[in-house]
Amino acid sequence: MARNLARRTARIRAHRTPARSKSNPPFLSASHDEWNELIETGRAKSFLTAVRRLAKPVVINWGFPTRYLYIVSALQAEGVQAWWLHAERTQARAAFIARGGIDPQLFDWQMDNIERERLLISSVFGERVVAGLGPDGSQRRPEDLWSKITRSSY
Fold first, then answer.
1. Looking at the DSSP assignment, which residues form a beta bridge with residue 31?
2. Cα–Cα 20 to 30 A to 16, which of 10, 35, 65, 126?
3. What is the DSSP string of 105-145?
């Protein structure tokens, strides 16, 4: 899939994306309507067709609410390899607070939802789980994550 994860990461938000603008990454501009269709219908074919038209590998790095697990399943049904980036809650919270900009109560809400939906998350991702933070709580480098993912035999 992606050879150079650091340069080819596309961030997507799990809600209707804003109208096309100069501030949207090219990926979002190229697939805005198709992403919205995926969110609304749970069908990924049009979205992935738009992504493939970019003619380069794409990584979707998306911290999504658990209510959008159906999106991951739809992408998987079309052949996308989905991985869950896991971190111990205390470490993840410290990293979230250090990053700043969002109320930590929203982090707690998200983590509560993740803990409640743990069985469903496990059924969707299976063994495709990798540590998103290093032992010291720092963000793992994209190259390290990609190396771990591509070494796995899933």
1. none
2. 126
3. HHHHHHHHHHHHTHHHHHHHHTT-EEESB-TTSPBPPHHHH
Q: How far apart are CA 6 and CA 142, in angstroms?
A: 5
Contact 1, 59 (CB under 8 A): yes
Whole-number Å distance between alpha carbons of 132 and 61:
11
**Which is nearest to 2 in space by CA: 42, 69, 61, 45?**
61
Beta bridge partners of 61: 11
Rounded Cα gap, residues 41 and 129, in angstroms: 26
Tokens 């290093």 belong to which residue?
134
